[in-house]
Amino acid sequence: MIADFEYFAPKTVDEALSLLSKYKEEAKIIAGGQSMLVVMKRGLLSIEHLIDIKGIEALDYIKYDEKEGLRIGALTMHRAIEKSPVITIQTRNWGTIGGNLCHGDPAGDPAPVFIALNAKLKLASLGKERVIEMEEFSQDYLEVALEPDEMLIEIQVPTPPSHTGTACDKLMVMKGDMGVVGAAVSITLSPGDGICKDARIALSNCASTPLRAREAEKKLIGKVVNDSLLVEVGEVASTEATPPVDVHGSAEYRQEMVKVLVRRAATKALERAKAA
Amino acid sequence: MKGELKELKLTVNGKSYEFKVKPKTLLVELLRNELKLTGAKIGCLDSACGACTVNIDGKAVRSCSILALQANGREVITIEGVADGYKLHPIQEAMVEHGAIECGFCTPGMVMSARALLGENPAPSQEEIKEAIQGNLCADEGYVKYIEAIEIAAKKMRGGN
User: Fold this and answer.
1) What is d(CA A169, CA A161) in angstroms, rounded to the nearest whole number?
2) Contact B138, B149 (CB under 8 A)
3) Which of chain A's residues have a Cβ under 8 Å away from the Cβ of B70?
4) How confident is the model at residue A88 (pLDDT cuts 50, 70, 90)?
5) A159-178: b or e for each residue (b if 16 or more CB lie within 10 Å)?
6) How close does chain B come to A256, measured CA to CA in Å?
7) Which position has the higher pLDDT, A78 or B14?
8) pLDDT: which is higher, A140 or A87
9) What distance lies between CA B152 and its chain's CA centroid?
10) Which residue from A5, A38, A41 is facing B23, i.e. has the nearest CB?
């Protein structure tokens, strides 16, 4: 089972960063722990010093204004985001949004959604801060671009341009479960002629990281979007996917489902862009 | 130091406790092994089955999926703290009367998920009930009765018949 470790529960970001800068690779941050404890129980991760940041209240917030866009504190719980009037994603009473992203699971739902929304992440180490694109944060399976002394502080979602619609969809074995594959799509139309000005498509569980389907996006940009184009877009996205194989589906099945889910999410995003 | 005992203060079923625990202790282990509250079941120990669900500050949380130390300063209610002495909680009563019980292993978790739901939403729709218990697996597939019983309990708690 879980091996022994030393436990810290800092109350401020600075305290947490000091501990990180002291212990670096030997330390690991736990937030809600909903993914990390699973990994620890399986013996895939053994930790010398565990820094429990769940008690840092300053990182639990959802703020919005038009200029800055949406700001979500890393320790905001999924359930709070779901219930907030500004955004909806998923449910959980203990897990945190930042913890989900830092776990780096390519099957997670929030990362592709944030990639489609062009979100950025604010990372901090002692006395230093940097902001990186959500898309660049995921490095490999369960690996993210955090230095050993860094932690995720905030997720920044810019206010979408006018005439933008976004949507996501995923295939589940059981409602509420992890996605077998999933797609998140954002479409921006130019108001007069309805031509697609910008598009972002991100897939979950289709590579070792959340995957941006850039070729599929290119298919959309500069064109008037209709149903047959969306079918093609799904097909292109499917060729970009290199999904894993497990009991829930073969790679071929997942690739087929990418076609369906990209088309569905894009259709909904398009409707919303037209209505916006 | 690794494995060094840490102080933990929490309330469980209305009583205050202080412990010294190894940091790796899971909440479900503390409840079952130290407090002998064996109502929260260990089914999978892997965040999948929901049989270990308790309420922390009124919310349904899986006690196998948090460290005991993460409940520091919080209020935990287990299935043992749901009834008022021998008087069953309306959720329990409805489950008994409606036959919403199969082998009983998943029942404590179902009750705790339902309790958290009705605490925040006294008049849930069937869909909302399904969502609330979607993290509780019943190996006997007794879901329909559970959903109906929770509806009956909600009605009763709102003062209807």
Assistant:
1) 22
2) no
3) 30, 33, 52, 54
4) very low
5) ebeebbbbbbbbbeeeeeeb
6) 27
7) B14
8) A140
9) 19
10) A5
B-chain residues within 8 Å CB-CB of A4? 2-3, 22-24
Length of chain A: 276
At A90 the pLDDT is 31
- Which is nearest to A121 in space by CA: A106, A102, A140? A102
Q: Looking at the complex, report in whole angstroms how far the Cα of residue A3 sits from the nearest Cα belonging to chain B.
A: 7
Q: In this predicted complex, what is the ipTM?
A: 0.84
Distance spanning both ends of chain A, measured CA to CA: 52
Per-residue confidence (pLDDT) for residue A89, from 0 to 100: 35
The CA distance from B98 to B106, in Å, is 16
Residue of B nearest to A32 (CA): B66
Closest CB to A33: pick one of B46, B66, B135: B66
User: Using one digit for the tens of pLDDT, what is the confidence trace for A208-260?
Assistant: 999 999 999 999 999 999 999 999 999 999 999 999 999 999 999 999 999 99
Domains of chain B plus CATH, in order, are 6-81 (3.10.20.30), 90-157 (1.10.150.120)
Measuring CA to CA, how many Å separate B85 from each of A216, A260, B97, B101?
Answer: 62, 54, 19, 21
- Tokens 């130290």 — which residue? B34
Q: Which domains does chain A have, with CATH numbers?
A: 6-157 (3.30.465.10), 164-275 (3.30.390.50)
